[in-house]
Amino acid sequence: MMVARACALSGAGVVLGIALSIWSGRLLSTLLFDVQPFDPATIAAAALLVLGTGAAAAYIPARRASALDPLSVIRGE
């Protein structure tokens, strides 16, 4: 459940980031020489990197927490 929510939030961030990168790329292409406003390979690689990092950041702590016994955690407090 937590991993799915983290992936959904990462996905929303990727969609917003792609839109902003295309917009800012078009703005920068008018100011700089030889700047491409839309490079699909770079955008796809960055999106996969962000999604993978978001999934790993949620999966690793969730896996560790699921291995704990809830009763022993409550007793420890």
Structural account:
- The structure is a single chain.
- The chain is an all-alpha fold and 77 residues long.
- It is 83% helix and 0% strand.
- Helix 1 runs antiparallel to helix 2.
Count, helices: 3
Biggest sheet architecture? none
Query: Based on DSSP secondary structure assignment, what is the total number of beta strands?
Result: 0
**Poorly predicted segments:** none
Overall form: rod-shaped
Structural class: mainly alpha
Helix content: over 70%
User: Percent of residues in beta strands?
Assistant: under 5%
- Return the average pLDDT rounded to an integer: 87
- Please tell me how large the radius of gyration is: 19 Å
Q: What order do the helices and strands follow?
A: HHH
Termini separation (Å)?
A: 25 Å
What keywords describe this structure?
83% helix, mainly alpha, 77 residues
